[in-house]
C-alpha cells in the first residue's frame, strides 16, 4: 500500500497536469470555419480563419493563485516580526548607547 504522502503527491501531480491541459486548450482555440457565398453562385466555399488569441489580462499578478492563499498571511507575519525586531534594536540602541 502506498504511503499517504505519495498519494497526495500523485493527486497534486494529476491536478497540475489537468490544469496545464485546460490552460493549453484555452490559449490555442480551434480554427473557426467561415462560409463565404458569392452572389450568383450556388456553391459555398469554406475557408478556415486564423485562430484569434483571446484577450490577455494586462496584469498577471492581479490574479491570485488559489493554491497560495497562505502566502499573504505568512508575508504579513514576517513583516510584523521584522518591524518589531527593528523597533527593539532602535530602542536598545538609545537605551544602551
Short description:
By secondary structure, this protein is mainly alpha-helical.
Question: Secondary-structure blueprint of this entry?
Answer:
Blueprint: H1 4-27, E1 33-37, E2 44-48, H2 69-96
Antiparallel strand pairs: 1-2
What does the model show?
This protein has a two-stranded antiparallel ribbon with strand order 1-2. It is built from two helices and two strands; from the N terminus they run αββα. 0% of the residues are buried. The protein is mostly helical and 97 residues long. The protein has a domain of 29 residues. The mean pLDDT is 76. It is 54% helix and 10% strand.
The largest sheet is:
2 strands, antiparallel
Oligomer: single chain
Low-confidence stretches: none
Q: Helix/strand/pairing class, anyone?
A: mainly alpha
Number of helices: 2
Q: What is the number of strand segments?
A: 2
The string of secondary-structure elements, in order, is HEEH
If you average the pLDDT, what whole number results? 76
What distinguishing features does this structure have?
single chain, 97 residues, mainly alpha, two-stranded antiparallel ribbon, 2 helices, elongated
Amino acid at each position: 500500500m502506498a504511503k499517504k504522502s505519495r498519494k497526495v503527491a500523485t493527486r497534486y501531480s494529476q491536478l497540475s497536469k489537468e490544469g496545464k491541459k485546460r490552460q493549453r486548450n484555452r490559449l490555442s482555440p480551434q480554427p473557426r470555419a467561415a462560409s463565404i457565398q458569392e452572389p450568383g453562385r450556388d456553391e459555398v466555399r469554406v475557408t478556415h480563419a486564423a485562430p484569434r488569441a483571446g484577450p490577455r489580462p494586462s496584469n498577471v499578478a492581479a490574479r491570485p493563485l488559489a493554491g497560495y492563499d497562505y502566502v499573504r498571511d505568512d508575508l504579513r507575519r514576517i513583516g510584523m516580526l521584522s518591524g518589531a525586531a527593528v523597533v527593539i534594536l532602535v530602542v536598545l540602541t538609545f537605551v544602551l548607547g
